[in-house]
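Q: I have 488 residues here and want to know how they pack in 3D. Can you give me a structure?
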Amino acid sequence: MSSILTNTSAMVALQTLRGTNSKLSMAQSEISTGLRVASAKDNASVWAISKVMDSDVKGFKGISDSLALGESTITVARQASETITNLLTDIKGKIVAAQEENVDRNKIQTDINALRDQINSVVNAAQFNGLNLLKGTQDVNILSSLDRASDGSVTANNITISRVDMSTAAGVLGTGTDLSPNATLSATSATNTGNSETVTFAADADMSNNVVSLTIGGATLNYSAGQLSGDQDAAASQITGDINALGLVGITASVSANVITLTSTRAFQDTTLAASGATASASSIAQRSESLTFSASAAVKQGDGYQVTVGSTAFTYVAGKGETFEDVARGLKTAIDGGSLDGITTKVVKNSSNQWELRIDNNNATSVTLARAGAEGGTASGGLFGLDAIDVTTNAGADAALSNIETLVSNSIDGAAQFGSAQGRIQIQRDFVSKLTDSLKTGIGTLIDADMEEASARLQALQVQQQLGIQSLSIANKAPQAILALFR
């Protein structure tokens, strides 16, 4: 049946043409924008995923800028630390030269002062955009990553950079919890009195046939049969004279009847003692000094301060982040050595109980009182504490400076190495963030970018379909005109 009111063929042709035009419009949009999913209406889920990933890409671009700024800051600190190490090495060379007594120590001290001032200048100038990693103790966080969990939550991660204080600040003792139980003094005063041990000869009416051997401080006296005459008292007197004739530094011998008393005033050095044919009271004569012994079990926190009072002068060292009792002991040694106390010398050792000790020797005729204190919550001493107190114009000062400069050089080397490691880590993270950003961009492109080859081919096919659709619609629209022939 034919109808002039309802043209079914035209309706079908029109719907087909509309569908073709819609697809053609989409193909043209893909070609013009390069996007398969340009908006949420194209594919809501894919568009949402791509937008989340796109926000991550922008975040990582910001992280890359943060890492670049952090790397520049650390580079400045590392280079400054290396420069300080070189300057401290130069100071060490000057101190070594000052060990000779026939040099102009005042001129050497002038050179040391100039190098010290240059170090202070480097420390103050080692900043990037106002941030100086060589001053203070507060950590610096550098944004390194944004980690997205499966539930969509985002967590910011940081690379933490520890400052390395290269200042010469003395630190301030806190007023917190008493820490004095962590440090034990061997005595409340230090004297120049030596320590003594004895060698005793048993009663013997005639010593002429006795064989005797005596070793003290590495020097040995051997007596074969016939070399000693008289009884034990005479033998003891003869050997006492022979010991004193050796001229052992810091060692003196005295005799009372058949007992030889050996006295050592050697500081920081035990003197070996052995006897054959006689009885020694000990295997060594203890070194002369008093000790401040630190706990082997207690921990050291940033701000923990310890103080030693020698006579009327108090010397303080406050620990920085990550320091140990070794650092505390060496810091106190540096403080005391810089105090220019006549006749007072110090040494840091680790005893047989695995405890760090600060030993203090007094070579003055009069004794000096000793006291110790400790407290939490102080302001940490600088990493180059004691540098400004180096004085090589005296023998004692030159000797003390030689041991103390090693600690300062070690601190600067550790600081430079720490900054070098941090810089290397940041470089690795920057490379990773760059590659990660590229991967995210690739993933986003895979989700929403148009396949241009496919779109081009589809466009051509749709254009042909469009032309055919127009032709079909034209033919369908002519069908009602054929009915007119029936009325002619």
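Q: Anything worth noting?
A: The first helix runs from residue 8 to 33. The chain is about 45% helix and 20% strand.
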